[in-house]
Amino acid sequence: MNFFWRRRDEELDEELRFHLAMAIQERIERGEDPKEAERAARREFGNLALVRETTRRMWGWGWLEDAWHDARYALRGLRRSPGFSAAAIASLALGIGANTAIFSLTYTIMLRSLPVAQPERLVELLQKYPGEPRGNGYWTRRSYEHYRERSQSFGALFGMGIDNHIKVSVEGGEPEFRVAEFVTDNYFGALGLRPVLGRGIGPGDEGLAVISWTLWNSRYNGDAGVLGKRVVVGKKSLTIIGVAPRGYRGLRVEAATDVWAPTDPDGQFVLIGRLRDGATVAQARAEMESLYPFTIAERAVKSSDPLVRQLRVELEPCGAGLSTVRDRFGRPLTMLMAVVGVLLLLACANMAGLLLARGAARGKEMAMRLALGASRWRLARQVLTESLLLSVAGTAAGGVVAYGCTQALVELLASGRPHEKLELSVELDAQLLLYAAGLAAVTGLLFGLAPA
Amino acid sequence: MGKPDGYKNRIELLQGTLDMLVLQTLRWGSQHGYGIAQAIRSGSGEVLQVETGSLYPALHRMEKQGWIRSEWKSSENKQRAKYYELTAAGTEHLTSEHARWTQMSGAIASLMEPS
Description:
The complex is a heterodimer. By secondary structure, chain A is α+β, with helices and mostly antiparallel strands. Chain A has three domains: 2-59; 71-112 and 326-448, no CATH class; 119-319, no CATH class. Helix content of chain A is 55%, strand content 16%. Chain A has helices spanning 2-29, 34-45, 48-57, 62-80, 82-111, 141-150, 187-191, 213-220, 281-291, 293-302, 324-361, 363-371, 376-414, 430-448; strands spanning 122-128, 139-140, 154-170, 176-183, 197-198, 208-211, 230-233, 236-243, 257-262, 268-275, 312-317. Chain B has a single domain (9-105), classed as Arc Repressor Mutant, subunit A (Orthogonal Bundle), CATH 1.10.10.10. Helices cover 54% and strands 14% of the residues of chain B. Chain B is built from four helices and three strands; from the N terminus they run H-E-H-H-E-E-H. Chain B has a three-stranded antiparallel sheet. At the A-B interface, helix 1, helix 2 and helix 3 of A face helix 2, helix 3 and strand 3 of B.
């Protein structure tokens, strides 16, 4: 490609030089003084560089080639003023990096939908004492069955118990600590999960288990013969009947579930409902409030605490998964998001300032290039390329900063709570990275144009 | 900055007209850029001046459009030069341009000099 261009350039040069040579020669043949002839011919020919530029534009590849030249020129220019470049790139990197990191975390904890069917129709059933910010409480199987039979607002109501730290041993190996969910028989059906192998846990299943795609691949090498094998979970030996869909790691945001097994008859669990088509959260809440005295009565039998009578039922959408991290850090994170947003604007303003200062300093260069026959549009593009290059470099550096920040933030969130076995899988949000880069580029374009 | 004296009585060509004149010049055989410019100038009695800044972009554009093709040959005085020649598509384009131009100049003439 490059060779092709150079050859074409050389041919054009030769063509134009031939034209000039002919013009001079003819004048000399007419009897003009050679020096005078050359001067006159050159004057008549016009601006050689401009003729070459306009002709090259006709090849159609001009814009691409120009872009390449612009990029190389801009790179040289940036290398000539390392202080300016470093300052601009660093301020962009920090702005973009911080935003991407915080947003990625916010997205993971607060917004990312569970990979299940219609996650937006899932609600969690909570029990709250007055004044308590977030509900607590596991529900008994009796309560669960009571509501499952009576409620009209839910297409499905299912329960799940969690063990964050249970010994699991596969293939008779050493036990390892894993996360397990003990689920009611309608869990897989209600979430619309289709196991990649075998089936999910269904009615009447006992002594069976479903394992995660990750566990299947790391410990069984993705072998289809895994079905029917035994896995020891806690004290029970279970038979594997299925492998969960890839990417599904349970209902909680900050834990990666590896094993699903049926609930114990006396187990307690989190209750989650899937709203029936057409039913609203408000309807379901009203209905649950009327049914809830059943649980109060049940609890009052075991506890003499008068506060039990003040318990209320609450419903919260949980399509983004259950998260104690969200309960604790949701609001601070939202505020942090706003703060880093301002930081990005500051970074852009900073870059604008740098570009303006540089533009003022380059007035002379621009004037000279205009005088040498460069078109105004070409100069503008030149400056824009430089700004874009800065934005790209800033974004790349920002990506690195974002990666580091995200890791640090996740570790920070997990620190001091080893018993929770926090495991957040935060993915850098490419969309936001692009958005921030776009903003930086626009800033660059706007203020980069000032000198041109 | 004014133009050099020699340009005073010359007329700058519109793009479509330049295309037509270049194609017309090439009807009598292949020619290099300088030759085309000279032919137009002398053929018009030194009235029409083709600027290099218009001629070469036009040549390269028309080559891309397929109206002309080019070849490197050695010129009358043994120098390597790029010669252009008319293609079938170019001939066709010239015919239609010529007809259009005849119609238009006739129309302008009848407006300017009503009989």
